[in-house]
Design brief:
single chain; 2 domains; 8 helices; 31% strand; hydrolase activity; Fumarylacetoacetase_C_sf; hydrolase
């Protein structure tokens, strides 16, 4: 299934996407609810939905304003170094354990909403990533069982403020500026993708300028291995987000550095899932617009 959570003017709902059209599953099955947690929490409901919704008027996908796939994820866990060439361009040694960090919910926003360049820095960078949404939680999950814990896959742009990321050994400041982590808009269930989402083209761009282009087969830690590793130290819960790291080509490694600028639209794409597009705005302009509304 290909799903999108969003609003057509009557509150958030879950939609089943078929080409350029979508069916409102929340209207057809009220128990689905207003985000993916209804489907995540009820595999039988998800199976029923997958068989097809009752005949309803379809709406253009373009008419849906995206929302976060899960409104309140318990955890947002990110891999920092998962592609060898990206590790090398950043000047790091290839690790034998994944670099893991957390993002706050305030730092996240749905695809289509502005990515905000803060007033304190012009070094806003892009990072296209595969992201998974946990369907079944657990602790000490075995690698061979881990893929059964995935509800679906989406696209993430891990917007990073590089000078703040480098201020300390911990990356928390640079990875948690408000409105810098774009998610979605589509979530695709594992049955519609290669096992473990391996072999998918992953790319970021601004207009015709290709910024990053690689393949998820290049990931050092697979989805299954990542889930197993994370669940060694924390209990994964249904609805958690896990971002799988970015390939080479980030802005800070280019000569000269290539930072995102207000007025641009950055696109992050994973083959078979979709495009996560974000207009770049300056924080002062964003705040002025929010105040006017």
């Amino acid at each position: 299934m290909k799903l999108i959570v969003g609003n057509t003017g009557e509150g958030n709902a879950v939609f089943l996407v078929e080409g350029e059209l979508a069916t409102n599953l929340t209207e057809a099955f009220p128990e689905v609810g207003s985000d993916l947690m209804g489907l995540i929490g009820s595999p039988s409901l998800a199976a029923q939905v997958a068989k097809g919704a009752p005949a309803k008027e379809k709406v253009p996908v373009s008419s849906i304003e995206p929302a976060l796939p899960v409104e309140q994820p318990s955890k947002i866990i990110c891999l920092g170094l998962n592609y060898v060439d990206h590790i090398k361009e950043g000047g790091y040694a290839v690790p034998d354990y994944p670099a893991l960090f957390m993002r706050s919910l305030n730092s996240m926003m749905p695809a289509g909403q502005p990515m905000v360049r803060p007033t304190c820095s012009e070094r806003l960078d892009y990072e296209v990533e595969l992201m998974l949404i946990v369907g079944k939680g657990g602790r000490h999950i075995k690698e061979e069982d881990a893929l059964s814990h995935v509800f679906g896959y989406t696209v993430f742009n891990d917007g990073s403020v590089r000078d703040y990321q480098r201020k300390t050994h911990q990356w928390t400041p640079g990875k948690n500026f408000d409105q810098t982590g774009a998610v979605g808009p589509f979530v695709v269930t594992p049955d519609d993708l290669p096992e473990g989402a391996v072999g998918l083209k992953i790319e970021s761009r601004v207009g015709d300028e290709i910024l990053q282009s690689a393949n998820t087969s290049d990931m050092m830690w697979s989805v299954a291995r990542t889930i197993a590793t994370i669940s060694e130290y924390t209990t994964l819960e249904a609805g958690d987000f896990i971002a799988m790291g970015t390939p080479p080509g980030v802005g800070h490694a280019k000569t000269p550095p290539r930072w995102l600028r207000p007025g641009e639209v950055v696109e992050a794409e994973v083959e078979g899932i979709g495009i996560c597009a974000s207009p770049i705005v300056d924080e002062a302009d964003f705040a002025s617009k929010a105040a006017a509304e």
